[in-house]
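Predict the holo structure. Ligand: heme C.
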Amino acid sequence: MRKSLLFIAITAFVIMIINAVSCKHDPIPPVIPPNIQNSNGGNGSNSGICFSDQILPLIQTYCAYTGCHDGNSEAMNLTTYSNIMHVVQAGNPNGSTLYNAIIGGGEEPMPPGSKPQLSTNQVILIYTWIQQGAQNTACACDSTITTFSGAVGPTIQNHCQGCHSGSNPAGNPALDLSSYNNIVAAVNSQNLYGRVTGTSGAVMPPGNKLSDCNLSQIHNWILGGMLNN
Ligand code: HEC
């Protein structure tokens, strides 16, 4: 009797070990940081994830740029909500082609290794959006929020870092916009504000101009002395 109990215990233990070792792609656990749970894109007072302000710009900059998943693409077009929904199963991140591609579990990990990669928080944001039902939501932007952490930083993160970060950032010379210091330097010496308004050179992001509200937040942050607030 005792022996057979011991045998069962050992067998159970061995099975546990085998399971743990053979697990290939651990999906990112749905641990949602509080700043994402109640996130509003940093630009307003809404709760919940806003597709148009937080998810679409990420997909546009990390996936739907020229030559990849853009409107002229022979590969999958990821420029609009309805196109994106071809690779998303609402409520089921792990069953969604999009999510599997960005965690490297698909046939081809996305974005390709040579391109800037999504951060862990951005991956969790997409996971959470799909899990919450992959709604086509928009958030009201609050132009009175003009802080770096509450407005400018999240806007640059969502709309610019897909091209302006990583080992080979876009720009001539290369422009990395992944830190506060670099963003301030780009305002001072690379006319960041002229580029986002399109008043000097091609508008940034190319083909996807920021909203007037986002532009006014950046404008007032610059006028206020570009604080790291
Ligand atoms: C889809 C890719 C892409 C996105 C997204 C993007 N950029 Fe760019 N950016 C480029 C490329 C390519 C260049 C170089 C060609 C040019 O200057 O037009 C560039 C150039 C620039 C320059 C001039 C750099 C220099 O060398 O003087 C600035 C400033 C800039 N971007 C700011 C931004 C900001 C701010 C955002 C977000 C609001 C942004 N970009 C989003 C691709 C991108």
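The pocket of heme C is lined by residues 61, 65, 156, 159-160, 162-164, 170-173, 175, 186, 190, 192, 195-196, 201-202, 204-206, 210 (CB under 6 Å). Residues 90 and 133 are 5 Å apart (CA to CA).
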